[in-house]
Amino acid sequence: REASANLKTHQYNMDEPVTLWVNKVGPYNNPQETYNYYYLPFCKSFEDGKEEHAWGGLGEALQGNQLINSRIPISFGANVRNSTICKQKLTADSAKRFSYAAEMQYWYELFLDDLPVWGFVGDVKHGADGRSELFVFTHKTIDIAFNKDRIIHVNLTSEDAVPVAEGAELSFTYSVNWVPTSTPFHRRFERYLDYNFFEHKIHWFSIFNSFMMVIFLTGLVAIILMRTLRKDYARYAKTDTDLESLEHDLAEESGWKLVHGDVFRAPQRMLLLAACIGTGLQLAVLSVLVVVLTIMGDYFEERGTILTAFIVCYAFTSVIGGFFSGGFYARHGGSFWIRAMILTACLFPGMCFGIAFSLNTIAIFYHSLAAVPFGYIVAVLLLWLFISFPLCLVGTVLGRNWNALPNWPCRVKRIPSPIPERQWYLKPWAVALAGGLLPFGSIFIEMYFIFTSFWGYKVYYVYGFMLLVVVILMTVTACVTIVGTYFLLNAENYHWQWMSFGMSSATSLYVFLFALHYFVFKTKMTGLLQTSFFFGYTLMFCVGLALTCGSVGYIAAASFVRTIYRNVKCD
Asked: Are 51 and 22 in contact (CB under 8 A)?
């Protein structure tokens, strides 16, 4: 009870016990390939064999943390010199495991007062004759800096390399050095932040470059709205005395006015589009919300807190997805609103669960800590079933009643107009692929920092940058989609709903290609487990990004289409 209280308050009395928790081990080049600390044959300092676990929250379990009390005697302020943890004689199996761990550069993670420290299991030394000898470190030196009654910094040094061989006698020892410091408690996490990496001038330059792109695109949209459309309005608003001139213009030119009777026609696969738009807008709100909460609360300092916040906030923002999905479906005359609601509630969680289930199966086969315990899987499902799903139903009902009036500026014709053949670069797939480039260009530098922090043992803390990048991404996506929609309508193609969604969601395709490049050229990951987790997590992220950008692009295009057709005569 006393140790638990200290972990919450982070305050200790002199000579009070301090718990050292062991967490996980794994190859350095494969961040997600982690195992229980005692997966390697480390001898235990407790005789009864009963492990004392520190069970964390939902996010901590999903991230593959499993803290076990090492029961190594450490007291606040008390130095320890070369104290023995335990002794053991290596069997053939133990020697084989330690040899493999040293060869694959296995690292391990410990926690002391919620501060992580890392060390390597062993080392490889190459002789002059080209032969390699494998060693295991048997001594841990723990340097602890404290300020009054609080622990500020912890540093771990692995020493005393002993050759690994069957029958070798190993004595695992440790030392503890307590050093006073004047660093305040609220700044103790700063030593884990890589300021030189995240606040490099190229990071600032990328933000400036993206900001200039926003100015350029908003100017381009303004030109289209103010100059090009003004000419279109003047041409389409001719009086009856100019009828002959108007017929001559329409015979020689094409334009978006000619499809006014089809532009508000219900799109194909409306059920799926409604679910995509509702889920995407929910994820857009969720992304901004979680980033703002992280900025306000420094969630990156606590294990799994950001992931927990994301899951819980997703459940409670499901009402947003249901509201926009239900409203869209009702405005276009959809009659199967229950199906739309169920698809909206299941679309993103279902895809994530399918990917996660596959990854969990692989992790269980490898006996990895990346495998999520069954109890936490049930907790996530219950959170979805009793919070997310009912709120999505409530949102759908509200959307059908308060957001369902069509109020189209132009009447929809009974018979759809034919779509003329155009050049390949005006076809929807070409417009969509081209439209995804600029939004990706505004975020690809930030993608590098995010990928490096997630896969490269760095703590991402510049969430102010991330919030700015999210706003820039949404702005660029909206502007590009408006321009693309204008060109599509000028080509007399009135299937703008799916095109606007696809053009803006194409950004995720370029992000996936970037991830493939990052995996091949920037990492040294190997093995089925790590490869599966890399591309599985990337696929989840890209699906969410596609839904988010697609919905933002659709909303921008829908506002643009309503605006331009509201200001012309639609007889």
From this structure: no
CA-wise closest residue to 486 among 217, 113, 159: 217
Looking up tokens 């303004």, which residue turns up? 222
- Cα separation, 179 vs 160, whole angstroms: 23
Distance CA 385, CA 49 (A): 39
Q: Which amino acid is at 476?
A: V
Q: Are strands 122-126 and 106-112 parallel, antiparallel or unpaired?
A: unpaired
Nearest to 277 by CA among 321, 335, 232: 321
Q: Where are the beta strands (DSSP E) in 19-131?
A: 20-27, 35-36, 53-54, 67-69, 80-89, 106-112, 115-120, 122-126
Q: Closest Cα to residue 501, out of 441, 425, 563, 552?
A: 552
CA separation for the pair 321, 279 (Å, rounded): 5
How big is the chain by its Cα radius of gyration, in Å? 30
pLDDT score of 255: 75
Residue type, 377: I
Between helices 428-435 and 437-455, what is the axis angle to 10°? 50
Token pair 């969720």 in the structure block, residue: 286
pTM, two decimals, is: 0.90
Spatial separation of the C-alpha atoms in residues 474 and 264, rounded to whole Å: 24
**Cα dist from 378 to 235, 371, 384, 386, whole Å:** 62, 14, 10, 12
What is the pLDDT, as a whole number, of residue 198? 82
Alpha helices in 366-436 (DSSP H): 374-383, 389-402, 428-435
Query: CA 137 → CA 120, 163, 202, distances in Å?
Result: 8, 9, 39
Region of 527 on the Ramachandran plot (φ > 0 left; ψ -120 to 50 alpha; else beta): left
Structure tokens at 445: 């530098």
Nearest CA to 32 out of 68, 62, 71 is that of 62
Spans of the chain, pLDDT less than 70: 1-7, 46-49, 232-233, 235-254, 568-571
Neighbours of 565 (CB within 10 A): 19
Q: How far is CA 532 from CA 151, 327, 358, 544, in A?
A: 38, 38, 9, 18
CA distance 246 to 568: 14
- DSSP annotation string for 232-244: HHHHHT--GGGHH
* SS3 state of residue 3: helix
> How many Å apart are CA 354 and CA 9, to the nearest integer?
40
